[in-house]
Amino acid sequence: MELFYYVVFGAMAAVVAVLELGGKSNKDRITTSQAFNSFKNNYILVYSLMMAGDWLQGPYVYYLYSTYGFGKGDIGQLFIAGFGSSMLFGTIVGSLADKQGRKRACVTYCITYILSCITKHSPQYKILMVGRILGGIATSLLFSSFESWLVAEHFKRGFDSQWLSLTFSKAIFVGNGLVAIIAGLFGNFLVDSLNLGPVSPFDAAACFLAIGMSVILASWSENYGDPSESKDLLTQFKGAAVAIASDEKIALLGAIQSLFEGSMYTFVFLWTPALSPNDEEIPHGFIFATFMLASMLGSSFAARLMAKNSPKVESYMQIVFVVSSASLLLPILTTFLVPPTTVKGGGISFSGSIQLLGFCTFEACVGIFWPSIMKMRSQYIPEEARSTIMNFFRIPLNIFVCIVLYNVNAFPITVMFGMCSIFLFVASILQRRLAAIADKPKAEDWTALKERDTEADPLNAP
């Protein structure tokens, strides 16, 4: 493997080490309690196990399907089924989480994803399709129920609101960074070193999910959304839609999230052909680990930012979106500025090296984005329907990703990157608007909206 990869990885590892060790006193300047530290560590343990179950699967899904003899078109349909089920069922499972309990929803995530892993043992297309549908439902629960449980439980236990940023940043640093790197290396060990086959990472994922579920059952308490709506799922839908439509801050947050995550998931499909347009031999696993290290760098930087009162999250995220937009322009710029090579195979090209640095910058922005968007969601989304609203946000995201997957061969890769760059720039504009109105009070709070809706439709009154 070329020295370039080691240099990039080593440089970022050194920066992360400096931020974590040198910035420790800054982050710990916020005085916390022993009870909070125990609560935070418990959540980070569970979140890390959940993410280990997710990260172990990611690098091997496409490869497993291809070993079963399916072509690109069939595999594309399987991926579309996953995102489609997340879109169709996401809002329903989010509402059920608010209605039936967030702890139950987290346990349901574990069970659903374990069943999805089991289906990977079958080469039958229909069974694999069922597995993708189950995986889509699980993804919706992963990115809504756990955060909803954390925020509700944090305030139920009387912890300071500023302490939430500590849990968010550390969970992303460990779960989306360190665990991702370890999971990638562990999966590679199972498949390549032990020769257990491409299904072995899915079995390992099921084990981690089972362990996490046992910790949840043993140590988590239950919390809910608005109890007055616990008998009416449709009312929960209507209430969430009214909250989004009536509060510009919630609507802006949803649009920003969809634009950024849509670009992020598109990037996942594009980075490999971008770095190896002429079938260059690139170390996919090592590059993935490098991206995750860049994400760790971003989350560590975000922890330092959120530990201070200035700049506010709403302000610095404008810069993050602009930087991420510029980083995804590099594949377009190198196409025009760097002479293309027609030599097949070999190592990474000069333009590929430049793009790799840009992609690492984008991943660092992703690392800043996750804890920051969690912080903003905890401020603006009403507790009563948190999971429902968060899954509403994922509807346009999943539609966008499905369209991209369906048309992935219809446009040049530069057009796709250009589209993502534009979306990220629009996100920066919307973030600027959110920062401008962040301190303005809402026109109506959740209780007022609910009372007004009940008066308009007394048949839905509890």
Write the layout of secondary structure elements.
Blueprint: H1 3-22, H2 24-27, H3 34-55, H4 61-67, H5 72-100, H6 102-119, H7 125-142, H8 145-156, H9 164-193, H10 200-219, H11 233-246, H12 248-275, H13 284-306, H14 313-327, H15 330-337, H16 350-380, H17 386-406, H18 413-437, H19 446-456
Helix pairs in contact: 1-13, 3-9, 3-10, 5-6, 5-7, 5-17, 6-7, 6-8, 6-10, 9-13, 9-16, 11-12, 11-17, 12-16, 12-17, 12-18, 13-16, 14-16, 14-18, 15-16
Verbal overview:
InterPro entries: MFS_trans_sf, MOT2/MFSD5. It is a single chain. This protein is mainly alpha-helical. The chain contains 19 helices and no strands. The chain has helices at 3-22, 24-27, 34-55, 61-67, 72-100, 102-119, 125-142, 145-156, 164-193, 200-219, 233-246, 248-275, 284-306, 313-327, 330-337, 350-380, 386-406, 413-437, 446-456. α13 (284-306) crosses α16 (350-380). The longest helix has 31 residues, at 350-380. The termini are far apart.
Mean pLDDT: 85
Q: How is the quaternary structure best described?
A: single chain
Q: Pick out the low-confidence regions.
A: 458-462
Q: What radius of gyration results from the CA coordinates? A: 22 Å
Strand content: under 5%
Report the sheet with the most strands, covering strand number, pairing sense and barrel closure.
none
Distance between the termini: 65 Å
SSE succession: HHHHHHHHHHHHHHHHHHH
Put simply, the count of helices is 19
| Percent range of helical residues | over 70%
Number of strands: 0
From the helix content, strand content and strand pairing, which structural class follows?
mainly alpha
Q: Based on Cα principal axes, name the global outline.
A: globular
